[in-house]
């Protein structure tokens, strides 16, 4: 076979391959166009408001303050679209804006149901005079709420609420071992801590309370020293604390009043102020400061 014949044969084979590839490409294009058309048709059907209609709504949760009907009204107000196009995040956002809602979860259930699970706020402490702190340490506005049992009140900045709540829980449990109850925890803008503490063994209709000043540093050391002093000096004494200032490195200033037969004197009682040194916790030295206006003057008078 000569060269011309071979060239013609190769050209014919190349033409056949080209035609075959063209047919394959045309078939693939046709398949893609068909799939796109079917996809568009399905998408149109899925997104049509009158297709895949949501006609069932489930509201789940333990409700003590919320009404499920109110949650349902909020969901229906912001539920737009059908089963596939409904905006779950939008519904969740508005449900969580409801006053007593801590968090919410919204999900679809095939073929026609929307389920909304709601968790209510659980107030554990009061924040200042007009707000509450929930179990996660978030400050929430619950103006109509009042607790049926005593709760600790926190006084301070809202962004410090979680840390204050943790401290309050720790200190409350700690003070119970000394027959005391923490009623208030305060944190100033400068970082100084102070507590309001109640006697648990008091039989008065209005139990005795006192203020404990801790300052802004060495808090644990000051608390430990106070606990030791309280157990040895004041826990079973007729003297009731009114104020205890533990911010000093070498002692504590306390203001007391006398208790008679388990009841605090209210008429003609004499309040006393003491300076108690930490030098010996087991038998601390005590100085009556009732006639001295300040510890600073007492130190100046005794240091010369």
For the residues shown, what is the average pLDDT? 82
Could you state the order of secondary-structure elements as H and E?
Answer: HEHHEEEEEEHEEEHEEEEEH
| Overall morphology | elongated
Unreliable parts:
none
Distance between the amino and carboxyl termini = 133 Å
Describe the protein.
- The chain is α+β, with helices and mostly antiparallel strands and 304 residues long.
- The protein has three domains: 12-47; 56-120, membrane protein fhac (Ubiquitin-like (UB roll), Roll), CATH 3.10.20.310; 123-302, 3-Layer(aba) Sandwich (Rossmann fold).
- Helices cover 35% and strands 28% of the residues.
- Strands 4, 5, 6, 7, 8, 9, 10, 11, 12, 13, 14 and 15 form a twelve-stranded mixed β-sheet that branches. The protein has a three-stranded mixed β-sheet with strand order 1-3-2.
């Amino acid at each position: 076979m000569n060269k011309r014949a071979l060239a013609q044969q190769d050209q014919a084979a190349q033409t056949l391959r080209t035609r075959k590839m063209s047919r394959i490409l045309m078939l693939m294009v046709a398949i893609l166009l068909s799939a796109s058309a079917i996809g568009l048709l399905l998408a149109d059907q899925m997104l049509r408001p009158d297709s895949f209609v949501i006609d069932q709504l489930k509201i789940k949760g333990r409700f003590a303050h919320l009404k499920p009907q109110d949650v349902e009204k909020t969901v229906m107000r912001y539920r737009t679209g059908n089963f596939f196009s409904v905006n779950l995040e939008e519904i969740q956002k508005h449900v969580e804006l409801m006053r007593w809602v801590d968090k919410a979860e919204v999900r679809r259930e095939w073929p026609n149901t929307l389920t909304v699970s709601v968790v209510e706020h659980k107030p554990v402490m009061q924040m200042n005079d007009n707000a509450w702190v929930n179990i996660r340490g978030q400050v929430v506005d619950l103006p109509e709420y009042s607790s049926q049992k005593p709760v600790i009140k926190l006084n301070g900045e809202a962004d410090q609420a979680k840390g204050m709540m943790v401290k309050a829980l720790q200190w409350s449990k700690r003070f119970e071992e000394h027959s005391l109850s923490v009623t208030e925890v305060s944190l100033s803008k400068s970082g100084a801590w102070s507590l309001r503490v109640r006697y648990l063994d008091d039989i008065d209709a209005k139990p005795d309370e006192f203020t404990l000043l801790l300052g802004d540093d060495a808090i644990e050391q000051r608390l430990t020293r106070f606990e030791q002093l309280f157990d040895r000096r004041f826990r079973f004494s007729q003297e009731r604390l009114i104020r205890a200032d533990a911010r000093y490195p070498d002692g504590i200033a306390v203001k007391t009043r006398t208790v008679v037969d388990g009841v605090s004197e209210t008429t003609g009682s004499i309040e006393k102020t003491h300076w108690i040194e930490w030098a010996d916790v087991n038998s601390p030295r005590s100085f009556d400061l009732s006639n001295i206006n300040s510890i600073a003057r007492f130190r100046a008078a005794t240091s010369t």
